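Problem 12. The chain below contains 673 residues. Write out its predicted structure in token notation.
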Amino acid sequence: MNELHLQDKFLIPFFTNNVEGLGYREVKANTISYNLYIEEDLLEFLSETKLNKDNFNKLLRKFSNDEHKLIKSIIEFLIERSKNYRNMALFINDNKSFTFEGLKFYLFYVSGSETHGDKLFDKNIFSVVQELPYRFEYNGNVIFSYRPDISVFVNGIFLGYSELKSNYNNQSAKINGRMKIVKDYKNAVLEYLKIAEGNDKSQNMRKDFLKIFEKSIFITSTDLEETYIIRNLADFLDVIKNANEQKQYSYQTYTEEVEKSFRPYPLLNRNADKRDKLKEVFRALYSKKMIEKEILYYNFVEREVIKKDGSKGFKNEKGKLISPRPKQKFGVDKIMSKIDEFLEHENDDNYFINKLRQQLSGVSESIRNELISKRLKYKNNQTVYSLLLQYAAGFGKSNIIGWAALQLKDIKRNNEYVYDKVMMIVDRLQLRDQLDRKMYNMNIDNRMYVEATDKATFIESLKSDMRIIIVNLQKFSTIGEILDKEVLNRLSGMRIAFLIDEIHRSNSGEQHEDMINLFDALQESFENEEYIRKRKKKNLIIGFTATPNDSSLSRFGEYSKYAEGEKIWVPFDSYTMTEAINDGYILNPIKGLVPVSAKMVYEIPENLTYKAQSELERYKIVKKKVYENPERIDAIAKFIVDRLVHTTYQAIKGYGKGMLATASIKSAILYKE
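Solution.
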């Protein structure tokens, strides 16, 4: 299939098919002005939809019944208003309704409203355009022009575009498609720099000239095998500018940095038919409900949060655009897609066991019976649903938890909220504060959630209208202290989604044997016979960890396959440390190991291990004595400080993140002191 057939014969029909496709309408490119607005769509949306038409008709009289003049004025108003937004998702979200000439209008209807359900959402006009003509003029001359293969709009407002490449012509999205977008943006920036020097302190020219690149929610490069996605081209303007000033005309640094951000979008089934894979990705990115998620949830500007006089606010700074990496969005969407299966079979406690039996149909009877027997013993997905997700440290788990919490809070079926409450269970004050700052940046302020710090506030939170509850386990000794008989009785008529930011908890500061699995503790709380008898709904527990052990996987993991040397149980979704290192999101700590020669002599008292019952127990006692030795810690601390001051800070130019791994909490405190 060549590029033209991919675009015109396959993707456009898929976009415009109302039954099996995305339900867009196609708009001819020659009807669209260079300001990236479809005037006819915006006019139709404002003049004909239920919540807009009365005020539109009132305003039309002020404009002498000249629709063209009115819509031109509204577009000019919207263009000016959108200039200070990082992308169009942020702009539409902040301006779902706006006031023009003293009258209120809606720019986008959200789904699941209390009064209208999805009826108004269905009135949003989603459009697709082939070969959109874009150009920028300066002093009467066209200095840049561009025609993206496919562009998408909602209610006449530009959202983003896709470049298509055909494997038939020995071209690929990974190489040719990405490089075309990289070069197009570079060429546009270079033309902009020629006219902007000293003339664009307000950045208004940049916002106008480069909007097709920088205001896009995302840009994709697609072929029949893969789709690549980028959201932050604007971050690389200074890289191009610096290379140009230094006459490094290969722009190699720019190209390499953009490639790191221009990542492939994951697939549920990599072995599917090529066309089915392409449909899967385009549904995940361009379906109407997914575009709505981009507008409502997946884009926000993160600024430093400051607290003053008991209230929170933002430090006066530009902030950083936060939007999901492909794997982050894929993981959150995967969680949401599982909800319907859970709800459909909520009253069938044996549904997932029977599903497992079918999956094990090719395995010998003895092994099948053994695996099913273990699963039955765990009662997984019988009294409560559970999902285990593995994400590498440093991958942005807090963002994933925040996006998941927001969507779980808002998800509806039959015009009713699916989950009565969303509980975010955190085990460390640092993580609790981190989530607090994250939610504030996501526009979830104190009026939308409550923190439970003891049993009384926990019970009060269940009674309140607050839909999100943060449970700080530092304030409780055990899960059982929270979910006692009284609380379970209250929960029996509710459906709760629990998000555990780290399923492993340490009471003693030691790891391994003393570790408590919060997943286990939470699930076992709902295996109470009285609760099972009274419950009307099933709760959902979503547990996150970077290091799931075999026990957690066998109890809460998903069946993969039965083969010698292969894991039988896997996380519901995963992004491992190895993947994060290979993709460049985190550094390989092994490559950064610095061997240090330090001669130390330890004399272990003979009576220290006399109570040890085994060699392993003796080893643990001796290890603790060595690793918590103050002289050893003092020597290592001095070496770390010397290396940071004289080597590391100079290499990283004063900016970076680091972690000191210690053997215990006591050791960490001694290092800090």
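Discussion. The two ends are 66 Å apart (CA to CA). Students who got a different answer should revisit the alignment rule from Section 12.3.
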